[in-house]
Amino acid sequence: MKKDKKFVDRFLSIVERGGNALPAPGTLFLILAVLMIIISGIGGYFGWSTDFIGINRKTMKTEEMVISVKSLMTKEGVNYIFNSMVTNFTNFAPLGTVLVALIGIGIAERSGLIEAILKKVALSTPKRLVTIVVIFLGIMSNIASDAGYVILPPLAALIFMSFGRHPIAGLAAAFAGVSGGFSANLLLGTIDPLLSGISTEAARILMPKYEVLPTANWFFMIASTFVITALGAFVNDKIVEPRLGEYKGEETIEFQDVTQDEKKALRVSGIAAILMLLIMFPLRAVLGASFLGHALVPVIVLFFAIPGLAYGKSIGTIKNDADVMDMLTKSMQSMGSYIVLVFFAAQFIAYFGYTNIGTLLAVKGASFLENAGISGIPLIMGFILIVGFLNLFMGSASAKWAILAPVFVPMLMRIGYSPEFTQLAYRIGDSATNIISPLMSYFAMIIVFMQKYDKKASIGTLISVMLPYSMVFLVGWSLFLAIWMLIGLPIGPEATILLKLS
After folding, report:
1. What SS3 state is found at 61?
2. Which of 64, 177, 191, 333 allows an S-S link to 135, with CB 3.0 to 4.6 Å?
């Protein structure tokens, strides 16, 4: 065991040193963007392309498609580089979410509300359960779309620090739950109807009236929530945190008992939060399903801002509107390095999408596995590995599934597996490697959060910290699926592993 642990430590240290030997994250994304221009030029010159059957995500219909590498070294490509530079940055999805959410979080943090809540958590939660609670909350947060990425990691870092533990371990545990356990949940999320619609169209290639319901994977994902929580807690407490060692950074937090004034202010903020929720319930009924989209971010802003204002007014940290504006200004100032990093990351990710290189990789990977000549559990495990690998290069879950579903859903239907089961296997591979992919939208943001506790933290640091979670999730979740297959349990309401022909 000691030898194995030393080997893991050495391996992760090599990964960290290698990653951190690279240029600064912003510079690295700039270099990757330049490389993408060169590679696309080569691919365009030699005519890299392939044809495949895919699903048009606008019409949700199966179509024959030809995908070719689009060169950024042509007149059209150069025009795209210059004309899209601003919109690549401003349309980068996490940028708006992070900055808008920070308005509410900034008030809650600088008014003293978050610190007071953390005091209560630190003084009332058993130390041995902290990791489990953080990872579980991370997994559950995916019903709130991307909000969990912005809120949970920095809060988890503070919670861990309040227990005298390494804050980066808390940040990593939350990120592992939010992103690595993205598909698992006790409830249905926004991803379920999105994937089931694509699976339905792929299944109808063979069975024209087949329908995959949004609840198709629900039973398995409920069970997976507890499996991922247990696996994540094991990795965090036995591998990640021991390797990080004792925290000796400049940021510190020591909690004393909650004072009477703080208790009173917490009660006031709690009443404000309840009143806000009572107002939001009718709003939820009016907005319907769209409430889980862009509308949720402003709701989260209000959920932090209103109790924060109430707390600050009660405790005395907010005396007038100037105090509030000062809090917001200081919160935004803390995100300066993130904004710079996002500018370069957004260019690289946009170029990657424009050139179709990620799509070409996905099609080639699907063809490779289809022609590999394996079946049964080895085929499913191979499929999960291929998806996990492709996820490093193509972040969007729905975009990848629109390419892979028309290949693998009919392929596995022919040997007796249901479309619901194929979709389930896809979700495992798509989730497990999120946390080590630089193309993942919130990857840059997590690096910035990490640099608060380690000024030298870079891409290598983050990958070395998250790699154990990714590998254990991939292996452990796949084995859990294999056991589920052998037992033959249903994977959702009216959804089975084997295809029903009637």
Report:
1. strand
2. 177
